[in-house]
Design brief:
The structure holds 2 protein chains of 2 kinds. By secondary structure, chain A is an all-alpha fold. Chain A contains 4 helices and no strands. Chain A has helices spanning about 1-40, 45-70, 75-105, 115-135. The two termini of chain A are about 25 Å apart. By secondary structure, chain B is mainly alpha-helical. Classes of the chains: A mainly alpha, B mainly alpha.
């Protein structure tokens, strides 16, 4: 009985750790690919393409790891995650298009940045996880 | 959905953590099932019924 527990818990913790590594790697290579042309390699096209490809490949790895992480959760944790993802996706879609409309119709004085949308989705997901976890407590 | 998991656990002197270990879910999930906040899937309900050697109908009752 104890071996089983250790195995499930260990797998769950390992998946969480690996997802953090992949996410960290993706964010790091995204920063390199974004700021490298300005600060590191003076707009060398070949190096820029190389880092964009590396970032995309690590991004694909992160997506696959996220899928593995979700599948490794127990059924209640998976439900909490899926609910949070559904809300984050909806808020991202509706909020993103509304934000874009506000920009196109010049209601807002600044440009609609994709980073704001990513931030909105991330914060919505975290709130969704928090609310979902508390609901079943 | 109501259930008798808490009673069955008490009869076997088993903690929520031990039950969670036996059916490979988190302790929070066992707590949510016991308090009726979360309904388990059929495979999980079967695992629990096998563990307590009781039929699913005897453990879970529709409200």
């Amino acid at each position: 009985m104890e071996t089983k527990s250790t195995k499930w818990e260990k797998t769950s913790k390992k998946n969480t750790r690996h997802l953090a590594y992949w996410t960290g790697g993706w964010v790091f290579t995204l920063a390199i690919a974004s700021f490298g042309p300005i600060f590191l390699w003076k707009s060398n096209m070949a190096i820029s393409i190389l880092f964009i490809v590396i970032n995309t490949l690590i991004g694909i790895g992160m997506i696959l790891m996220n899928r593995k992480y979700i599948n490794g959760l127990d059924e209640m944790q998976r439900k909490v995650s899926l609910d949070a993802m559904a809300i984050a996706l909806g808020v991202g879609l509706v909020g993103g298009l509304t934000y874009s409309l506000l920009d196109q119709t010049h209601v807002i004085a600044f440009h609609a940045e994709i980073a704001h949308l990513v931030l909105l989705i991330g914060i919505t997901y975290m709130i969704g996880i928090f609310v979902g976890t508390n609901r079943y407590r | 959905m109501k259930n008798k998991i808490k009673v069955l656990r008490a009869e076997q002197n088993m903690t929520q953590a031990e039950l969670a270990i036996a059916v490979e879910v988190s302790r929070q999930t066992i707590n949510a099932i016991e308090t009726g906040k979360f309904d388990p899937s059929l495979p999980l309900a079967f695992k629990i019924s096998r563990l307590f050697a009781t039929s699913i109908e005897d453990i879970f009752q529709d409200e």
